Amino acid sequence: MLKTGLGAAAGSLLVTSPAFASAPGDDPLTLWYTRPAAEWLEALPIGCGRLGAMVFGGVATERLQLNEDSIWAGGPHVYDNPEALAALPQIRQWVWEDKWKLAQNLADEKFLGRPSEQAAYQVLGDLTLTYPGSAEFTDYRRELDLTQAVTTVTYVRDGVRHTREAFASNPDQVIVLRHKADKPGSVGFQAAFTSPQESTSSSAGRDAIAIDGVSTAWEGREGEVRFRAVVKAEARGGTVRTDGGTLIVEGADEVTLLISMGSSYRRYDDVGGDPAEVAGRHLRRASGQPYEVLRRKHVRDHQRLFGRVEIDLGTSEAAALPTDERIARKQLDTDPGLAALYFQYGRYLLISSSRAPGHAANLQGVWNDSLTPAWESKYTININCEMNYWPAAPGNLIECMDPLFDLIKDLSETGARTAATQYGAKGWVAHHNTDGWRGTAPVDFAFYGVWPSGGAWLCLTLWEHYLYTGDERRLREHFPLIKGSVEFFLDTLQTDPRTGYLVTNPSHSPEVGHHEDDGENVSICAGPTMDMQILRDLFGAFAEASEILGVEDGMRAKAQEARSRLVPNQIGHLGQIQEWQEDYRGDAALSRSRHTSHLWGLFPGHQIDPRLSPELAAAARRSLELRGEAGAGWSLAWKINFWARLLDAAEAYKRLSNLLIPARTAPNMFDLHPPFQIDGNFGGTSGITEMLLQSHGDQVHLLPALPAAWPAGSVRGLRARGGFEVSVSWSGGAVSGGRIRSDLGRRLTLRTARPLAVTERGRPVEVSRPEAGVLVFDTRRGATYDLAPSA
């Protein structure tokens, strides 16, 4: 069992190793069920970044729904609209004149990308195993062990106990399924591929079958991503043969299936690869390795990431219930272990859907069973894509950000073309959505799509990487991307003729209207609060990065001057953070939208802080009260983070409790918008982290928003900005011990409600205490410091 204990007296960290040899279900970090999955949202996800599968755990049939993360509808496409640049001056003028409907309609006609809808991420297909025998079975159990990233199904059928294990291996880039039985010669089945794509199945030798297909057309463009999946059987005992695309196993003692997938997608502008070569290469490498070796390599690789963080929020009798029953109870107060399971499930999902080699996690991570998923399962970069990566750095999964950085690099290339074509500007821009073809033009409708700050927000994830790691080599690598975004805004920001501020125009506060104009809901505006907050941080990050790297002195001065002219955060007539430059009245100020974009400066930014800017913090609280409880899971997850940043443990915990109910969390713990969107899982994991540890504003704050429902517990291995790894235990709602490792040797300012003493190797460390609840001390690179309550 994963458990962390922090000795209160000495502040020492004691960690017991996971008991991986324990009986199924003994580990609290296990999702488990008493019946097979009847629908997709009951199936269990496995993934290695590039590949994903949903395991249903059936008895008469087993279904593995398969994904390869580069299968997108259509083909390479430039979305930029050559008519946009000519229309831009008029759009801007009408915005200045408050002729919003005219401006928005012209943007719909002339400024949106071509086509105005982007392509969909698509399913590869299914591998179905059909087992002979009776339909009766007993002693059934289905589970996903997060500590090992292995699904297990066990049951008794016709007097024989069958056990199946499945996992997705990042080291070997295959999905592995092993079936064994406690009676020799009892494993037999027929396996076949199916797909809703245009495809053909075939035998690929005596022990393997394959499916070859191509993605579907999109907006008149033929599907161009060719793909292949191959499954090979390696049996102990019995016979293996194929017949016309069906794999037949009879009388085996044990069978291991190796599933390999590949596509022709090389990058957003090149689909000329050979899917058979990709799938065949990985299959050949995995073939011949004993199952135990494949499993051991997979588990070791997974634990290298997953095992960095352990959490204990307490337990109860509810922990003995199946996972779907725990969710259905809606009683988080009596089941604190469910919150810990949810936290670690988010980390598991990020490891499984965002690893190199592979693409960034999309709206559904890597798991999708449709040709036309909700919102095309794209990358929505006005909140959802960024939310996917909120837990990466603090959750000690910094490597999982690399696929996102690859996406940003691609967007800097396509976005430079959009900047030139649609704005006549230098640098690069990305609007509110992108896809496999890395579209950066405005899409969908002007009400949603004419928002130029998506790329700027993404660039701040590059800066966050540096804040957590201090890695100057990676900062130098990422700096051109940040610079390109800054160049775009320096070239396109407009001086508002009414206020003199520098503002974006056209833009909007994502997906929120501010007026009814001649019967039409309009969002188009100049200088919405979210843009100003993002650009304030972008220009600040650029200035700091350029100084660290010793480059771009002249451009740094321009960015700092522009930063000083942005619209400041403002408090409106209802006591709220204004969402726009103007303090709009009526429906605009009272919007109940699930988007809460004007509080970006509270989280993930930190321009609004209860300690440093109490008036703005109070206004942020008022904004949350006015906005109400949105139904979307991701929106509720964002609000957990907001309330934690406001240091309101009760309100943060209330949102977490509301997230972990059947309306917003599926039986397999996937987040529900509804339908499924994975960002809520990642936002919820981030929110729990923010309750336990915050590190913005040059301070590390221990237990800043600890709920009363978790009076005692511990967490090990969270990361804080400044290069610190933090472990802490608490009892009676206060710190009882802790340990901090300093990777960079920087000065540490630590905030905690209980006075602490600091030791290194048992020797007291000299600290200063500038105010109550704060201690400051210098650290050495690589040194570890123990914390204990101080007299």
TrEMBL record:
<dbReference type="Pfam" id="PF21307">
    <property type="entry name" value="Glyco_hydro_95_C"/>
</dbReference>
<dbReference type="InterPro" id="IPR008928">
    <property type="entry name" value="6-hairpin_glycosidase_sf"/>
</dbReference>
<dbReference type="InterPro" id="IPR049053">
    <property type="entry name" value="AFCA-like_C"/>
</dbReference>
<dbReference type="GO" id="GO:0004560">
    <property type="term" value="F:alpha-L-fucosidase activity"/>
</dbReference>
<keyword id="KW-0378">Hydrolase</keyword>
<dbReference type="InterPro" id="IPR013780">
    <property type="entry name" value="Glyco_hydro_b"/>
</dbReference>
<feature type="domain" description="Glycosyl hydrolase family 95 N-terminal">
    <location>
        <begin position="31"/>
        <end position="267"/>
    </location>
</feature>
<dbReference type="GO" id="GO:0005975">
    <property type="term" value="P:carbohydrate metabolic process"/>
</dbReference>
<protein>
    <submittedName>
        <fullName>Glycoside hydrolase family 95 protein</fullName>
    </submittedName>
</protein>
<feature type="domain" description="Glycosyl hydrolase family 95 catalytic">
    <location>
        <begin position="291"/>
        <end position="692"/>
    </location>
</feature>
<dbReference type="InterPro" id="IPR027414">
    <property type="entry name" value="GH95_N_dom"/>
</dbReference>
<dbReference type="Pfam" id="PF14498">
    <property type="entry name" value="Glyco_hyd_65N_2"/>
</dbReference>
<dbReference type="InterPro" id="IPR016518">
    <property type="entry name" value="Alpha-L-fucosidase"/>
</dbReference>
<dbReference type="InterPro" id="IPR012341">
    <property type="entry name" value="6hp_glycosidase-like_sf"/>
</dbReference>
<feature type="domain" description="Alpha fucosidase A-like C-terminal">
    <location>
        <begin position="694"/>
        <end position="787"/>
    </location>
</feature>
<dbReference type="InterPro" id="IPR054363">
    <property type="entry name" value="GH95_cat"/>
</dbReference>
<dbReference type="Pfam" id="PF22124">
    <property type="entry name" value="Glyco_hydro_95_cat"/>
</dbReference>
